[in-house]
Amino acid sequence: MWKYKAKLTLIGIFFIALILRTLWLETLPATFFVDEILSGYLGKYLWTNGMDLYGNPWPLLYFNKMGDYYIILPMYLDGISTLSLGLTRFATRLPTALIGALAVFPMYGVANFVFKKKTPALLASLLLAITPWHIVLSRATTESVIELTIVMAAVWSLLKSRQQLSYRWLFVGLLTSLISYLIYHTARMVIPLLWLGFLIIFYQDIKKNKRWLSLAIVSTLILFSLTFLISSTSWGRGRFEQTSLFSEQSGVSIRMQEMTYNLGSGQVLLARIFHNKLLGYSREFVNQYFSYFSPLFLFSDDAWLTSRYAVPEMGPLYVSLLTMILAYLIPSRKKLKFDKTAIWFVGWWLLIAPLPAALTVIESPNIRRSLLMLVPLVILSAGGWYKSFYVSWGKISLGHIISLLLIGEVILFSYLYVKQSDTLNSFYRSDVQPEIARYIAEHQKESELFLVFQSDDFPLYYLFETNNFSPELASQFHSGLRIEQIDQFKPMDFPCSADLPPELLIEKPINTIFIEPAACTVDSLNFEEIDRIYGVNQLLYYRVLKRII
Predict the structure, then answer these.
(1) DSSP string covering 252-274, please?
(2) Within this chain, do residues 98 and 34 fall inside the same structural domain, yes or no?
(3) Cα–Cα nearest to 151, from 126, 185, 112
(4) What is the rounded CA–CA span in Å between residue 372 and residue 144?
(5) How far apart are CA 316 and CA 322, in angstroms?
(6) Are residues 17 and 87 in the same domain?
(7) CA angle, corner 281, sides to 265 and 232, nearest 5?
(8) Is the same domain home to 333 and 445?
(9) Which of 5, 92, 300, 411 is deepest in the core (most CB within 10 A)?
(10) Is the domain of 92 the same as that of 186?
(11) E-assigned strand segments in 342-408
């Protein structure tokens, strides 16, 4: 009977997760980031025309916007949604939200292997369903959410295969692992390390079947080889080179040079010993790695205050999860039983999950690149939460107190996310761009030409707003998604209208409309302001100018 109750409870948790990820999805978050635009628009363009915006037929591995090589499979998923439901924000965000909600099932499966008990496994699924880290990313067309679900499915398959020494589940584990390579970059490092840890930690169990063990070893070698091959290609290492701690942006080489100069002349030996790049990069890596285990990163808004996922006064994890983990230290009247080798595997997962993020410095510490940490943290928290119900004082248990704290934090997060987050994260989410596209579409009869300044990503917003999927666009776009003109809209390389050379200004039609950021200084001799375009944040707006005749 309990078996069916557990299934019904898990289905109920899934619907909770689905509601939390799809309710008001069209308008929350209120701003529409360029990566979302790219994924929704390009996905539909691929299915409509059979090629990308550069004319490449059915690309399978990446889309090169500007040396960053976006993995393209999530765009195909969004394309199915926008093709079926229409080109809307809801349709663009739906696949990630849905797959994010589905993550409660592999979470239950993995946790059930660890605790060998359904209740803490259900608690783990519930925690994943209501955790801010996962909810916020699931609602923002974030590839790492899809990756997390696929990686958990791969690990769940491996654990089932280990239990039964099943070739079928081993194949499923390898297949889902390979799929994760086509979702997000971090899987290419974490997945082979998970397989390696699996072989080492569960060796005593799996060595009984030599043939199965040989296939598992071959599968692990395939994954490591594939990671090496991908990293040796320009498209495989492109994004890493842009964000790597080995790049000039990390500042390590500059600091080493400064310290060398501080020693003065004739101190070559000291400089080579204490200020070499090996030590410098090693220290930077250690700093980056341990920043992901900092309570400030996990439980305070420091983690994402300067990101497009910002939620003020709330961390990626609830503080109550910390109390759950600490509950392991309190003696209880019932001992928590778990698979000791499986818990070692969870610990291994936690150690390796931040590695890809720790090798980067841009937007660091980064909640997207470190999302795989969430699985072991939630599993450990769920076990502590379950145990806390057996630490009691009369009729009140520690579990009841923690549950009340968790409920309070869920309510607080819901308020802060729904009512406060949009104003804060609008600074990092291309605010005003959709409104400009709508403005141009609504005022096309008033001008022959609209010039938009500081408009690197704006063509995508305009195409999204006008629902333009003409195959001819593929011959007009250049590297970096640059295009000369679309309809009456022309993107400008100049930062402001005042920077236009006189000869370029003269050749424009008299009724040309100039749209520039509020930070620009208006040249009152040549232009007058006729309107303003506001985004979600009223502090962010663009001026609409016309020429003074």
Answers:
(1) HHHHHHHHHHHH-TT-HHHHHHH
(2) yes
(3) 185
(4) 8
(5) 12
(6) yes
(7) 125
(8) no
(9) 92
(10) yes
(11) 392-393, 396-397
Domain count, the chain: 2
CA separation for the pair 92, 90 (Å, rounded): 5
- Which residue in 70, 69, 56, 61 sits closest to 477, CA to CA? 56
**Same domain, residue pair 446 and 508:** yes
The structure tokens listed for 402 are 């923690």
Listed in sequence order, the residues at least 6 apart from 151 whose beta carbon sits closer than 8 Å to its beta carbon are 176, 177, 180, 187, 190, 191, 194, 372, 375
Q: How far is 98 from 138, CA to CA, in rounded Å? A: 8
Domain boundary among 426, 456, 477: 426
Q: Which domain range does residue 239 map to? A: 2-426
Distance CA 277, CA 249 (A): 14
State how beta strands 541-547 and 392-393 pair.
unpaired
Produce one character per residue of 202-214: b if its CB has 16 or more CB atoms within 10 Å, e if not. Answer: beeebeeeeebbe
Looking at the structure, tell me whether residues 417 and 443 fall in a common domain. no
Boundary residue ending a domain (426, 461, 495): 426
The DSSP output letter for 360 is B
- DSSP 8-state assignment for residue 482: B
Number of other residues whose CB lies within 10 A of the CB of residue 230: 15
Same domain for 468 and 397 = no
Of 197, 209, 223, the closest CA to residue 161 belongs to 209
- Per-residue pLDDT tens, the chain, 549 aa: give them: 556 788 999 999 999 999 999 999 999 999 999 999 999 999 999 999 999 999 999 999 999 887 788 999 999 999 999 999 999 999 999 999 999 999 999 999 999 999 999 999 999 999 999 999 999 999 999 999 999 999 999 999 999 998 888 899 999 999 999 999 999 999 999 999 999 999 999 998 888 889 999 999 999 999 999 999 998 888 887 777 667 777 666 666 667 666 666 767 767 676 666 667 777 778 888 889 999 999 999 999 888 877 888 899 999 999 999 999 999 888 877 777 777 899 999 999 999 999 999 988 878 889 999 999 999 999 999 999 999 999 888 788 999 999 999 999 999 999 999 999 988 888 888 889 999 999 999 998 889 899 999 888 899 999 999 999 999 999 999 888 899 999 999 999 889 998 888 888 888 888 999 999 999 998 888 889 999 999 988 888 999 999 887
Eight-class DSSP state of 33: -
Name the pTM for this structure: 0.94
Phi-psi region of 264 (alpha: psi -120 to 50; beta: other; left: phi over 0): left
